[in-house]
Amino acid sequence: MAAVGVLGGVVSLTALAGTGNAATSGDDVGNHPKPQVRADQTATQDASDARIKITPKQGAYDVGIDDSVKVTVGNGKLTKVTMTAVATGAEVPGTLSADGTSWKPNGRLERATRYQVAAEAKDAKDRSVTGNATITTLSPANNFIGRLSPEDGSTVGVGMPVTFDFDKAISDKAATESKIHVSSSSGQQVVGHWFNDDRLDFRPKNYWKPGSTVTVTLNLHGTQKTVTFKIGRSQISTVDAKTKQMTVVRDGKTIKTIPISSGSTEHPTYNGHMVISEKFRQVHMNGATVGLTTKDGKPSYDIEAVPHAMRLTASGTFIHGNYWGTDAVFGKVNTSHGCVGLKDVKGGGDGKQPAAWFFDNSMIGDVVIVKNSEDKTTLAPDNGLSDWNMPWSEWVAGSATG
């Protein structure tokens, strides 16, 4: 078992008996799903030559608080870098080098804190590129880190599970789970489920009740911490890959129907229930990061600034703006490598576009359901926040406390 303290969305756990070695995979903590090709295809673009590198890389834990974080760029110059504490929104002061090729924080970072780093750069032809990474600094001596989401005080959609991601394997799952209590003001029964040795999620049988308050209480070795978050309105958006339309239902009423383009026959979109876990005004999408390359080893696509992008799975499924598709695409043909595309403009500056509307009217925790896709695989419940794809009986069986 372990003593615990909650720092925003980061749980600092003092390692005692019952903890093992870290169980990590890839760039992120835990045994997350292997990447499954889920990204959007695009026409040939004039991509930027600038290449941003954020050190340490996305998902890193135990990041040092002194001189460990650095942003650099090759074949270009940095135009903007921000580093923000996720829990508080406080921005970390930093200094850009005189030649514009590197950036570093000015001073020591806080321990056991989750930070987001966002960088922008341009090459010699003024073509832009962006880079993003979320990292977590190390905890006090003899501690290890876990991430709790959603954030304390946040308001989320009805599909948002409570997720604990630990950076070390928990061997005594029953002891740990028994010290964590999740309840809702709605009175819904909430049960935990272990996906592996380092990820524990909690959810009710059905989506959270709109307007309810969820309380997470941790009481380990006499140290008690409470995190609360609110459930906003219900928004369930259903993507029909056959009709190529998305129906947005809020609090039981259809408020909009949007033409979409989903995955092609070669790369169909997952069927199933997904939950929005991240939102980006713009994000860089590169086929090589999900194993899509040409015969000569180049990325199958490289889109520097995909607008209005919202993550649906850990393996790379997004619902996002598409400015390169013509009017002959949306609502008429599925052309992507697995993402769901909505009509948009380059830069995302037109708020009247369908992608902008959906982005502005969506929140973390909203549900997106895909149906009638040609995809024959099963979307893993632990691929992102896809918990709702697991039957309730199987979910309950995954609790360590019985």
Describe this structure in words.
Pathway: Cell wall biogenesis; peptidoglycan biosynthesis. InterPro entries: Big_10, LD-transpeptidase, LD_TPept_cat_dom, Transpep_catalytic_dom. It comes from Streptomyces sp. 900116325. It holds the Pfam family Big_10. Keywords: Acyltransferase, Cell shape, Cell wall biogenesis/degradation, Peptidoglycan synthesis, Signal, Transferase. The protein is mainly beta and 402 residues long. It has a domain of 153 residues: L,D-transpeptidase catalytic domain-like, CATH 2.40.440.10. Helix content is 5%, strand content 41%. It contains three helices and 28 strands. The chain has a six-stranded antiparallel beta sheet with strand order 1-2-12-14-17-16. The chain has a five-stranded mixed beta sheet with strand order 22-21-20-28-23, with no helix packed on it. The chain is globular and about 60 Å long. 46% of the residues are buried. The N terminus is likely disordered.
